């Protein structure tokens, strides 16, 4: 029935496509034959127990993990492969760099550069990777830091900020690069409970602007419901259920998903 | 043998003339070991196994043979003059220790920093220059300083290949006058005066290195 609904909508442009992607670490298969299309501007939430493969899905897109087999396309180009005379070859660093620029990622542990000021954290990549002038980069960084409400902290160092503030800087740092697809890897999981809200608000703001495609791994079900157009429930390396937030979170079909969601309800 | 103050004062200026060579050799050798040490560390990290294993083998070979033997070997095998030979041999010898220090510094940079660099699409060279080395080097500065002092104290070895550093001068004075006590003591005194403040300064750096802003990352909460 979802297929029918999709056919009725105006043609949507696929921005990320996973084709038969498998990932194994040794004999441990973490992702089994993943086929997934993500559409331009779409917000996709990935939920599921730890070890279900959701982190691997976005880490492969960020080129932090190489798929064991299968292909990933971003914006019409192969990510891990290069087409040479119609044949797919393993991509070299040059190709990866070209394609990787379309993707940005925010990590669970923020991963700010501790030896750089907040401003430099946000301007170093635009200057040296995108080739912006210092002034352009600073202007753009300031704009994004304003968006996350931290434009007064530009001269501070990461260690001087709270976890929530650091994570907002990390979001700004990623936004400055203007990626087409933004990946969020459990970005509130390392935060003290009272700091979770401020980070989620920032992400909701960015999501509401619409343009950027987002893939978010989260354990915050209310947040997933508010932000996502589509929710994927990962279990044992497979997409076990998927659909609108209403379908998946309010109306779970499988026992696995019901018990997974039940854990969150009892926690609240 | 009794101590002769008059004699000691007479030869002091002559020995002092060797200080420049001692210090010059120390810093030349140290500059070589800092540069080459980094190169060795980076080569050892290459994923191309034949090269990284060869480099590891060379490092091991240099480390297990005495520097004095290496000095003689290079001195007689290549005609480079005593000072250049001395600086290069000590520099290469110490680069093997320094590369170990670099390695520990680089390993102390969390994997997450590499991943963040990749997410921002830094090139490998930019990742090293902007992210990894600026975090790897400050914590190891005290260790590098210790090697500088050890290297400084090793320079009397250069006497073996006729570099006119302090020890060489002291020995010639002894050979001329048959008095060794004063010249050797003076050399020891000059080494003490020069290296003790350096050691104090390094201890100060060690105490401070724990306080570099943001050098400690918060533990992972799962």
From TrEMBL, chain A:
Membrane topology type: Peripheral membrane protein
Family named by the database record: Belongs to the ABC transporter superfamily.
Domain ABC transporter stretches: 16-261
Keywords: Amino-acid transport, ATP-binding, Cell membrane, Membrane, Nucleotide-binding, Transport
PROSITE patterns per UniProt: ABC_TRANSPORTER_1, ABC_TRANSPORTER_2
Cellular compartment(s): Cell membrane
GO molecular function, one term: ATP binding
Organism of provenance: Geomicrobium sediminis
Keyword ATP-binding (UniProt): yes
Name under which the protein is recorded: Polar amino acid transport system ATP-binding protein
One Pfam entry name: ABC_tran
Automatic annotation (TrEMBL), chain B:
Keyword annotations from UniProtKB, A to Z: Amino-acid transport, Cell membrane, Membrane, Transmembrane, Transmembrane helix, Transport
Pfam family, one: BPD_transp_1
Chief place of localization: membrane
Ranges for domain ABC transmembrane type-1: 19-202
InterPro entries given in the database record: AA_ABC_transptr_permease_3TM (IPR010065), ArtM/GltK/GlnP/TcyL/YhdX-like (IPR043429), Ectoine_EhuD (IPR014341), MetI-like (IPR000515), MetI-like_sf (IPR035906)
Cellular compartments annotated: Cell membrane
Mode of membrane association: Multi-pass membrane protein
Keyword Repressor: no
Transmembrane segments: 20-43, 72-94, 157-174, 180-202
Keyword Magnesium carried by entry: no
NCBIfam families for the chain: ectoine_ehuD, HEQRo_perm_3TM
Family classification: Belongs to the binding-protein-dependent transport system permease family.
Protein name: Polar amino acid transport system permease protein
């Amino acid at each position: 029935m979802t297929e029918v609904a999709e056919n009725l909508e105006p043609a949507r442009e696929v921005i990320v496509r996973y084709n038969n992607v498998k990932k194994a670490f040794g004999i441990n298969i973490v992702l089994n034959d993943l086929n997934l299309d993500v559409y331009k501007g779409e917000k996709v939430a990935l939920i599921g127990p730890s070890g279900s493969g959701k982190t691997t899905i976005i880490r492969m897109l960020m080129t932090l993990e190489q798929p064991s087999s299968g292909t990933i396309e971003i914006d019409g180009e192969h990510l891990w492969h290069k087409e040479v005379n119609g044949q797919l070859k393993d991509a070299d660093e040059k190709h990866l760099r070209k394609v990787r620029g379309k993707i940005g990622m925010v990590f669970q542990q923020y991963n700010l550069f501790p030896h750089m000021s907040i401003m430099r954290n946000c301007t170093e990549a635009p200057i040296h990777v995108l080739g912006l002038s210092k002034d352009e980069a600073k202007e753009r960084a300031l704009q994004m830091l304003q968006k996350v409400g931290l434009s007064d902290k530009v001269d501070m160092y990461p260690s001087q900020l709270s976890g929530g503030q650091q994570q907002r800087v990390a979001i700004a740092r990623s936004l400055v690069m203007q990626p087409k697809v933004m990946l969020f890897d459990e970005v509130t999981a390392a935060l003290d409970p009272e700091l979770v809200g401020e980070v989620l608000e920032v992400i909701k703001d960015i999501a509401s602007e619409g343009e950027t495609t987002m893939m978010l791994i989260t354990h915050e079900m209310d947040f997933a419901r508010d932000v996502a157009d589509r929710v994927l429930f990962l279990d044992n390396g497979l997409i076990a259920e998927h659909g609108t937030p209403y379908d998946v979170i309010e109306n779970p079909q499988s026992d696995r998903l019901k018990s997974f969601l039940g854990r969150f309800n009892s926690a609240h | 043998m009794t101590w002769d103050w008059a004699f000691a004062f007479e030869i002091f200026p002559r020995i002092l003339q060797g200080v420049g060579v001692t210090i010059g050799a120390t810093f030349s050798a140290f500059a070589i070991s800092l540069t080459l040490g980094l190169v060795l560390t980076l080569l050892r990290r290459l994923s191309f196994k034949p090269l990284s294993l060869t480099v590891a083998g060379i490092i091991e070979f240099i480390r297990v043979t005495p520097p004095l033997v290496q000095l003689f070997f290079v001195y007689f095998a290549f005609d480079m003059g005593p000072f250049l030979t001395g600086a290069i041999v000590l520099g290469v010898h110490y680069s093997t220790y320094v590369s170990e220090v670099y390695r520990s510094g680089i390993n102390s940079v969390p994997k997450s920093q590499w991943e963040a660099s990749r997410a921002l699409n830094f090139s490998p060279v930019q990742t090293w220059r902007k992210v990894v080395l600026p975090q790897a080097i400050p914590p190891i500065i005290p260790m590098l300083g210790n090697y500088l002092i050890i290297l400084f104290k090793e320079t009397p070895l250069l006497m073996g290949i006729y570099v006119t550093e302090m020890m060489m001068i002291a020995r010639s004075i002894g050979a001329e006058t048959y008095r060794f006590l004063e010249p050797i003591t003076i050399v020891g005194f000059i080494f003490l005066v020069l290296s003790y403040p350096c050691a104090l300064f390094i201890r100060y750096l060690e105490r401070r290195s724990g306080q570099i802003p943001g050098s400690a990352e918060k533990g992972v909460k799962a």
